[in-house]
């Protein structure tokens, strides 16, 4: 099968997905923006991509020029895909593709059924319209969890027949840059990623106040950028237990943070499936998280960490203390995380994606 995968984000996910499909003998064309490749995998992309995968890096500096669209259309047309797989986005290129390739079967992955509060919620009307049209045009719609599927059915009951659930794969690609041995710090926790409102940085500050009294020597690494960090930086500095890295973390440094930490903290207000949790699994990093979105389908309570009711600051802190002081339980959960990484290997999931594409092709034929 010839599969064209198009995205404007989720670079690591898409590369692993493409590699998994190529391992089954499929030919895959991946279309990604140059800027995304540059800020994520960079020059390492050639060594990360499997045989059978072709990368088309599109230059999006002047997307209003016709050549921007014609280059992408030419690349996909020349490839002659049996199916196109778009990772949900509302850019104009999406509208161009679903119009130009209207006779080609289309699979759509929706990462967030409901837009996260904060910066993500401030979408232009144009993007909302394009996303709406994309859902209607898709022959099959891929979601990552049963919880998100149930939410989608409530919002779009007439599209329920298109839904297929395939879990989010473990993001093992981040281990590719690991080139040194880093010892875990026994009383160190990690809060990683985009510092946006839904991530619960305010919850983390409250949890930190409780943990400071509970655990002498506790350290919480906060690594990433976002609008919320500036709001709480002074409070975190005053507590004296936070190590703040207010910067974009390049892929070749990610492993250092996940190796240093003993626990990954997800005190979120809202979530989908949490890519951060799926980054932590391959490093054997147990999680303490709030029970929001589909996190509980990734982090099984008492198996891969602990899941706490949203808003339970004291309960969250208690779970952190319990896991940091119970080495036997921590080790067991860490081993479970590694085991789950294998079950969520993209090469395993590739069989499900192939079935998804067959379903899209069959549905297009029957129209």
TrEMBL record:
Glycosyltransferase subfamily 4-like N-terminal domain segment(s): 13-169
Keyword set, alphabetical order: Transferase
Superkingdom of origin organism: Bacteria
Annotated SUPFAM superfamilies: UDP-Glycosyltransferase/glycogen phosphorylase
Keyword Hydrolase found: no
Molecular function per GO: glycosyltransferase activity
Domain annotation Glycosyl transferase family: ranges: 181-336
InterPro entries: Glyco_trans_1, Glyco_trans_4-like_N, Glycosyltransferase_grp1
Keyword Transferase tagged: yes
Protein name: Putative Glycosyltransferase
Species name: uncultured Desulfobacterium sp
């Amino acid at each position: 099968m010839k599969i064209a995968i198009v995205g404007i984000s989720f670079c690591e996910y898409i590369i692993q997905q493409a590699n998994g499909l190529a391992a089954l003998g499929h030919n895959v064309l991946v279309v990604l923006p140059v800027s995304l490749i540059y800020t994520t995998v960079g020059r390492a992309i050639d060594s990360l991509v499997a045989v059978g995968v072709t990368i088309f890096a599109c230059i999006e500096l002047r997307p209003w020029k016709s050549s921007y669209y014609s280059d992408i259309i030419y690349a996909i047309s020349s490839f002659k895909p049996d199916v196109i797989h778009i990772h949900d986005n509302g850019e104009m290129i999406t509208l161009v593709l679903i119009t130009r390739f209207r006779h080609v079967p289309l699979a759509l992955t929706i990462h967030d059924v409901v837009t996260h509060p904060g910066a993500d919620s401030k979408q232009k009307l144009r993007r909302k319209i394009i996303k709406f049209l994309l859902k209607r045009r898709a022959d099959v719609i891929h979601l990552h969890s049963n919880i998100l599927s149930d939410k989608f059915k409530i919002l779009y009951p007439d599209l329920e027949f298109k839904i297929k659930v395939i879990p989010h794969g473990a993001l093992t690609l981040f281990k590719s840059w690991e080139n040194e041995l880093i010892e875990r710090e026994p009383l160190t926790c990690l809060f990683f990623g985009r510092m946006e409102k839904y991530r619960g940085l305010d919850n983390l500050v409250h949890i930190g106040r409780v943990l400071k009294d509970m655990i002498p020597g506790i350290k919480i690494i906060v690594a990433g950028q976002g609008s919320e960090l500036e709001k709480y930086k002074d409070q975190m500095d005053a507590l004296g237990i936070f190590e703040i890295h207010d910067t974009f973390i390049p892929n070749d440094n990610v492993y250092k943070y996940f190796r240093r930490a003993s626990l990954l903290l997800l005190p979120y207000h809202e979530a989908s499936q949490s890519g951060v949790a799926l980054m932590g699994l391959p490093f054997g990093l147990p999680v303490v998280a709030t029970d929001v979105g589909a996190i509980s389908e990734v982090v099984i309570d008492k198996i891969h960490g602990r899941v706490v009711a949203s808003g339970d600051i004291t309960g969250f802190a208690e779970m952190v203390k319990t896991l940091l002081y119970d080495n036997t339980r921590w080790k067991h959960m860490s081993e479970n995380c590694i085991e789950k990484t294998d079950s969520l290997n993209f090469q395993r999931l590739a069989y499900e994606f192939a079935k998804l594409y067959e379903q899209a092709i069959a549905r297009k034929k029957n129209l």
